[in-house]
Amino acid sequence: MHSxxxxxxxxxxxxxxxxxxxxxxxxxxxLDTAQSFIGVTEREVKKLPLLRGKAIFNxxxxxxxxxxxxxxxxxxxxxADVINLNISTSSQxxxxxxxxxxxxxxAMHADMFIVRHAQSGAAHLIAQHVAPNVHVINxxxxxxxxxxxxxLDMFTIRHYKREFANLRVAIVGDILHSxxxxxxxxxxxxxxxxxxxxxxxxxxxxxxVENLGVHVYHDMQRGLKDVDVVMMLxxxxxxxxxxxLPSAQEFFKYYGLTAEKLAxxxxxxxxxxxxxxxxxVEIDSSVADGPRSVILPQVTFGIAVRMAVMSILAGN
Amino acid sequence: MHSxxxxxxxxxxxxxxxxxxxxxxxxxxxLDTAQSFIGVTEREVKKLPLLRGKAIFNxxxxxxxxxxxxxxxxxxxxxADVINLNISTSSQxxxxxxxxxxxxxxAMHADMFIVRHAQSGAAHLIAQHVAPNVHVINxxxxxxxxxxxxxLDMFTIRHYKREFANLRVAIVGDILHSxxxxxxxxxxxxxxxxxxxxxxxxxxxxxxVENLGVHVYHDMQRGLKDVDVVMMLxxxxxxxxxxxLPSAQEFFKYYGLTAEKLAxxxxxxxxxxxxxxxxxVEIDSSVADGPRSVILPQVTFGIAVRMAVMSILAGN
Amino acid sequence: MHSxxxxxxxxxxxxxxxxxxxxxxxxxxxLDTAQSFIGVTEREVKKLPLLRGKAIFNxxxxxxxxxxxxxxxxxxxxxADVINLNISTSSQxxxxxxxxxxxxxxAMHADMFIVRHAQSGAAHLIAQHVAPNVHVINxxxxxxxxxxxxxLDMFTIRHYKREFANLRVAIVGDILHSxxxxxxxxxxxxxxxxxxxxxxxxxxxxxxVENLGVHVYHDMQRGLKDVDVVMMLxxxxxxxxxxxLPSAQEFFKYYGLTAEKLAxxxxxxxxxxxxxxxxxVEIDSSVADGPRSVILPQVTFGIAVRMAVMSILAGN
Lengths: 316, 316, 316
Fold this sequence. Notes:
The structure is a homotrimer.
Chain A: H1 24-42, E1 55-60, H2 65-77, E2 81-86, H3 89-94, H4 98-107, E3 112-117, H5 122-129, E4 135-141, H6 147-161, E5 168-172, H7 179-190, E6 195-199, E7 215-217, H8 220-223, E8 229-232, H9 248-255, H10 259-262, E9 270-272, H11 285-288, H12 295-315
Parallel strand pairs in A: 1-2, 1-3, 3-4, 5-6, 5-8, 6-7, 8-9
Helix pairs in contact in A: 1-6, 1-12, 2-12, 6-7, 6-12
């Protein structure tokens, strides 16, 4: 396997598949480009002609209103033509293989695929298959990665904290099943966060997570002690009753973010969540809607970050 | 509760939530603006740049192909970017609350929400929640109101009858469950229709309907006597077998509009229906497709009226 | 019945409903217009303003991601506004009739309807109903016709073989249920292909197929002997276990296109398939992905052909 299939030989981004393996300079280039788009979304007319005439396919093999919508908005702001395809895996299994579907859409002169798929590696598979002028963005693959989410998170942290070099950051919740967490850990490490913690029960931690360069905590009071950034994760509802967790109530008691637990963090700590939130499970409403929450700015920055990724890919 | 949350302090329309409480001058302003758009829809190129770069969200919590489509067409004629979100209440109940969904879409720089929801007051709730630069249009909330339908009906009546001051108007059918009827009654009363009648069986009339300024009839022959305008309502299929009605056939016998019953109205009376029609239940095909039907012009005027509402809101 | 409802009195194309009955000059005009669009899809900015401000409705009463998408892309390349309506026949049966739906969409100033429907003749019915300035394209009706598929097939054949006058062409598979095959047979015959063969088991051939001007073969070796073009058909999965066929495996053994069977054809024969393919049922992957396959170019040409049909209709 190619060490980094998303980079061209001269190091340009061809696809955005993972945060793992991307150099800090490239992450910073994306954040800087996103910064230049922030003004656009606040102008009266929010359109830029950068992707005019480009055909962008939102290929969602898993349902996702929110992520699909942010990509659709970002693409339309860049004047692209957007085609939404929600492909259930059942209809997929009936006939064509995934790569036949891709071949056909590429034959329709697709310029870019935004792919969400339940199987880890699906976006990689597509990226290895398409012609050199076609770009692929991973919008979440199985438990693997969700790179644009991590990038918008980095944008948010940089916006509020200016630099990464002195930060103490904690990621809280279901690390085991979270593609968001994996992407966040790679991004924070690459951008030079000196102290990165994960806080979770043992049953929701992947084996060998320490090897990713994180400190493991099972206790919120200790884990949140003096952190600058608290990054909550979503708990999938199907796991709330499962063998890994006693119950949603129990989870909230020990790992739900309340004002009381948050008091252990630094007074200017920010609170993040990738959404959609389970209020009363991962996070208390008083914190989610409180003065230290930057959850809605995350969404806003997500548009600019996705515009940045799309325009960088289209330019390469 | 604020007496009229849809108006700004200086009386400008911020949201369109109800017809109730809107002054006649404002209704007339909307109809006049719609009139100015009629020419546009007949031009070779039907686009106006008034909403270019604006992001308009069609938020439909109840399925509706027809109303959603007319809003989508109206928005595209004004050069807006339209995002369609069909959100089933089941998926809604799984995770995020309604207001979390709205917060997120607003964080994506939504400029306008078109909302249909099974619960009365949903559009109000959203309007009270959003930032001052975001506008909400109620596209039907529970049994409460459907204001753009009433406005296109007023446009249609004014088109064919010129003024409201001398008209006798009858609304026929399931008044009890109809948000359309409620909006129509408020609009007709506000615009000065001197004689407004409702015709329905007792089981399909709301308690105290007389207090809205209407005359109640249970008999079509008497109720339609010398009216200028007949406004039929749709009978929801789930009610055709219910305890409120003996059967669809029975309903048609007594309250279905036939040429014979229509003979009681004035010779130049117009026949309206908000669609979709149940032919042979509320209305006979000979009347629906007959020379006095203005049912299809209603649809056409609906585009111009929705363009008018959107452009007035965006301008305020 | 009018001999050819899709042509105006002076022979101009008003609707595209069937290939049957269209003169060769008109088919050639469409192919030539499509040729002029090929360059557009390879340009950096792929937009032409020919249909700017036109409202095109994708009316799909049967699900079809692929065909709907190609029409959507073609319409957007021509700068039209596209409204996608996926109407299940169940919701259709609930309320409005098909023609009421059409009347309403027409009242919204639709300029063109792209119609797919399970019932043969549905597009005809709509074309006979709409106003003279509204155009209808049949995107597949029951077992009847799928004219744009046949046109893109003709474009493909002309692209690779230059002319139709000396060709030997074989259509292979489930002729009986295939609207694609019916359209192909009419197109190939009209364009002057001197020898047209169909290869299928007796149970998958319509009665009297010889009257369409084709030679019938039940054996692949003989049927493919010296042909220039092999046109495979899709086998509907619901028929693979039915009384007409022993099994998918059995079908592949006798009628699946393998390299071995293809050896009977001319050395420069091309292999076509309308997609989506059932690999290992109608066609072996080595052939589908092999050097003589033109299956993906078919898809690409399909965009240009649909742009051609739309722009010709809009201009007439």
